[in-house]
């Protein structure tokens, strides 16, 4: 696994932990703070993935459809989370399937094609944010 994939998977783990914490939290104020963290981390993660995915989209014909599905899901998940009361259990189930496709199909496929210098450039961009 390259360093970039490692960061993305780590971000999935961190997001999943935040959702878990949110679902267990009963204090409304604390829930609001957690939701702000969820927004920030989720949007940053989508943005990073899209910088990575679409750089290679034209080179990898086999996964073009999956990439476009994932991009639409980012838009849908963004719209849902921006609602005040998204249906959380369903939202999380949907996100888990999305992450599963990325970790098992897209990240490994992109790893076969990405150039070392691009990994370094993308890592540099991610660390700047
Ligand atoms: Fe994603
Ligand atoms: Fe992801």
Description:
- With 129 residues, the protein is mainly alpha-helical.
- It has one domain.
- It is built from 5 helices and no strands.
- The protein has helices at residues 3-24, 28-56, 64-82, 88-113, 116-128.
- The protein is globular, with a radius of gyration of 15 Å.
- The mean pLDDT is 91.
- Bound molecules: fe (ii) ion (2 copies).
- One fe (ii) ion binds next to helix 1, helix 2 and helix 4.
- One fe (ii) ion (FE2) binds next to helix 1, helix 2 and helix 4.
Total E-strand runs: 0
End-to-end gap: 23 Å
Q: How many strands, which pairing sense, and closed or not: the largest β-sheet?
A: none
Helical proportion, percent range? over 70%
Low-pLDDT residue spans: none
Shape: globular
Which percent range describes the beta-strand content?
under 5%
The small molecules bound here are: fe (ii) ion
Number of domains: 1
- Total of helices: 5
Could you state the order of secondary-structure elements as H and E? HHHHH
Average pLDDT taken over every residue = 91
Alpha carbon gyration radius: 15 Å
Structural class: mainly alpha
